[in-house]
Amino acid sequence: MGATGLSTTPDEYRKRLADQPDAQIDSWAAELMRDVAIRRGVLRVLEDFRRAAGVNEREFERVFASGGGPPAAIGRDGEGRLMVPAITLYALVPGIRSQVPDGRDRLIDYLVENFDELVYV
Fold it and tell me: What CA–CA distance (Å, rounded) separates 23 from 60?
């Protein structure tokens, strides 16, 4: 993959991300959320994001709402798992930035955690 300009390892990818401006990190994170939701489902995005961002369900709700996601859209699936509409996933990006001082690092963690998804796409 090195010849195509892509990172060959998650560590290399993390180093390359560190050199990117905030707007690029935000754009890539939102695009990845959309792409993973299409391929693997919204639940996968929410699980990955919560793990990478280190937020519990209550904190997730605050992040989602502060990023512009409609609080009324937060719900549960048939198995009781936290769920939001796919079209509102973008709200997690500005939301995490507004709620924690290391939001950029948490978005980078999300991107790196999904390195294998990026390689697939």
Answer: 22
Query: What pLDDT score was predicted for residue 116?
Result: 86
- Average pLDDT over every residue of 55-66: 97
9-40: pLDDT as tens digits: 999 999 999 999 999 999 999 999 999 999 99
∠ CA 70-54-38, nearest 5°, is: 55
Question: DSSP string spanning 30-71?
Answer: HHHHHHHHHHH-HHHHHHHHHHHHT--HHHHHHHHHHTT--G
CB 52 within 8 A of CB 110: yes
Query: What pLDDT does residue 119 have?
Result: 59
d(CA 85, CA 94) in angstroms, rounded, equals: 17
